[in-house]
Specification:
Helix content: 40-55%
Strand content: 5-15%
CATH superfamily of the largest domain: Glucose-6-phosphate isomerase like protein, domain 1
Bound molecules: glucose-6-phosphate
Number of domains: 4
Radius of gyration: 26 Å
Shape: globular
Largest sheet: 6 strands, mixed
Number of helices: 23
Structural class: alpha/beta
Length: about 550
């Protein structure tokens, strides 16, 4: 296969880009009254409108040609069939098996993993029901009222995002907490509002070696067992683990019956579908959790069986490639207009940036093209009053996904229509902009003199031509959430295939961890540190000079 930039499809796209790069979307819309129809897709109750992008039918054809040329079909087959496509770690990538609703076997090294998955789901279901029915009791016989998920990265961002997204489905007499930060403030604040007798901790760590998680788990254990004559019994009632390393969790004091499995073929940032989602299942119940899995499975089916031109994750991925590699735009915004999706941007930031923040191809060569972009975002409605200024009138172009529910969870008049009017207004404004002639007429209408108009006009012009995808869905149900998350997972996968990188390892998070392990003992002494560069030495020594005595 030709290297990416020398491939015929890439070259054709490069030529095509030169022809269309200056087209304005205003003109594309006025030339084609069917543009919305031609560039939008439906899946279930989800609509993807991608007509407000800088593309023509030819762009789309060439992008799909690129995907075919990069053998997307073959890679998709490898993903779903359990081939070890995470080649740097020698692992299969089978988070899709966790939501496979059929009983079709899924083999890894010749062994069907479906029975193990079903056993995990059965155990999850038993735990969820026992807690929700108040049958799982604390050591003093009181029911559990607070659940604390201790985990970080992939063992935190997915659960907290999904829990927040599904709050309308959660029971109210169980409070969920998420502790991820080694900064003791987070666990200290959490412990302040809960009681040991009524709290259950879930320590989520695939490796059971992550220092951030272990230090929080030790603090939680200490708090739980303080003054107890039978710490093992306390942990039996108050601490669970989700991990691949059962022995390490048992060594920590968590009884085997309280440990749910993980597998090396599930990457941390793709693990929400496993027992890593236990906190979500406890909050919303196993039925809704399974609906979320079903929503994801439906998207898996769409991804596997829909022609590329109508395949939602494929289209999203190709648009990303179009901007990243041809327009040289390396930023991308996720802007939900749905309060319950307020944790989606940080979740997708990890999913995308940890997966495709790579610069070495599958053949070990350094790429000479851009790979994963910088992802940022927050609730769109708040962003409008803040950073949208740069999106409208700054010097950069930031393509954005705008997500919004058509229907609301609460029946309070006025709010939802106001919210949605902003969704439509923003995408229109970003696309159309405002021309000097339009500004002039507007200012004249306000009664301004020509002199005042001349002064103000350049500041009031909006260039427009800013791309957005609008994703509308009926309501954020568990099923819709599952579908949307799987859609983004597959989008990231497709981009990894095009860029010829391994989206499933994350060596880049290692170096800082290694150095922290070296620095930790240096912080425990009074000796001046000289073993690093002058900045790092200077910072450590400044820390030592100001540090107040603490018990460690
Ligand atoms: C995700 C990453 C990373 C990981 C955390 C927690 O894909 O690998 O975010 O999830 O470092 O790891 P543990 O679950 O092993 O504690």
């Amino acid at each position: 296969m030709a290297s990416l930039q020398h491939s015929p499809a890439w070259q054709a796209l490069q030529q095509h880009f030169e022809q269309i790069k200056d087209l304005h979307m205003r003109d594309l819309f006025s030339q084609d009254p069917q543009r919305f129809k031609n560039f939008s897709l439906h899946f279930g109750d989800i609509l993807l409108d991608y007509s407000k992008n800088r593309l023509t039918q030819e762009t789309l054809n060439l992008l799909c040609h690129l995907a075919r040329e990069r053998q997307l079909d073959g890679w998709r087959e490898k993903l779903f069939s359990g081939e070890k496509i995470n080649h740097t770690e020698g692992r299969a990538v089978l988070h899709t098996a966790l939501r496979n609703r059929s009983d079709k076997p899924v083999y890894i090294d010749g062994e069907d993993v479906t029975p193990e998955i079903r056993a995990m789901q059965t155990r999850m279901s038993e735990i969820v029901q026992a807690i929700r029915r108040r049958e799982w009791r604390g050591i003093t016989g009181q029911p559990i009222t607070n659940v604390v998920n201790i985990g970080v990265g992939g063992s935190d961002l997915g659960p907290v995002m999904a829990y927040e997204a599904l709050r309308p489905y959660a029971i109210h007499d169980l409070k969920m907490h998420f502790v991820s930060n080694v900064d003791e403030s987070q666990i200290a604040d959490t412990l302040e509002v809960i009681k040991p007798e009524t709290t259950l901790f879930i320590v989520v760590s695939k490796s059971f070696t992550t220092q951030d998680t272990l230090v929080n788990a030790r603090t939680a254990r200490h708090w739980l067992v303080a003054g107890s004559s039978n710490p093992n019994k306390v942990l039996q009632h108050h601490m669970l683990a989700v991990t691949e390393k059962q022995a390490a969790a048992e060594g920590f004091g968590i009884p085997a019956s309280n440990i749910l499995p993980m597998w090396d073929w599930v990457g941390g940032r793709y693990s929400l579908w496993s027992a890593v989602g236990l906190s979500v299942a406890i909050a919303v119940g196993m039925d809704y959790f399974e609906e979320m899995l079903a929503g994801a499975a439906a998207m898996d089916d769409h991804f596997c069986n829909t022609p590329l031109e109508a395949n939602i994750p494929v289209i999203l991925a190709l648009l990303g490639v179009w901007y990243n590699n041809f327009f040289n735009i390396h930023t991308y915004a996720v802007l939900p207009y749905d309060q319950y999706l307020h944790r989606l941007p940080p979740y997708l930031r990890q999913q995308d940036m940890e997966s495709n923040g790579k610069r070495i191809t599958r053949d070990g060569v350094t790429v000479n093209y851009a790979t994963g972009p910088t992802i940022f975002g927050q609730l769109g409605i708040s962003g409008q009053h803040a950073f949208y200024q740069l999106m409208h009138q700054g010097t950069q172009i930031i393509p954005a996904d705008i997500l919004a529910p058509v229907n609301r969870h609460y029946d309070i008049p006025e709010h939802h229509r106001l919210l949605l009017s902003n969704v439509f207004a923003q995408t229109e404004a970003l696309m159309r902009g405002k021309t000097p002639a339009e500004v002039e007429v507007e200012l004249q209408g306000e009664g301004m003199s020509q002199e005042e108009i001349d002064l103000l006009l350049p500041y009031k012009v909006f260039p427009g031509n800013k791309p957005t995808n609008t994703i509308l869905y009926s309501r954020l149900t568990p099923k819709t959430l599952g579908t949307l998350i799987a859609m983004y997972e597959h989008k990231v996968f497709v981009q990894g295939v095009i860029w010829d990188i391994n989206s499933f390892d994350q060596w880049g998070v290692e170096l800082g961890k290694q150095l922290a392990r070296q620095i930790m003992p240096e912080l425990g002494t009074h000796a001046t540190v000289t073993s690093h560069d002058s900045s790092t030495n200077g910072l450590i020594n400044y820390y030592k000079s100001l540090r107040e005595p603490v018990k460690d």
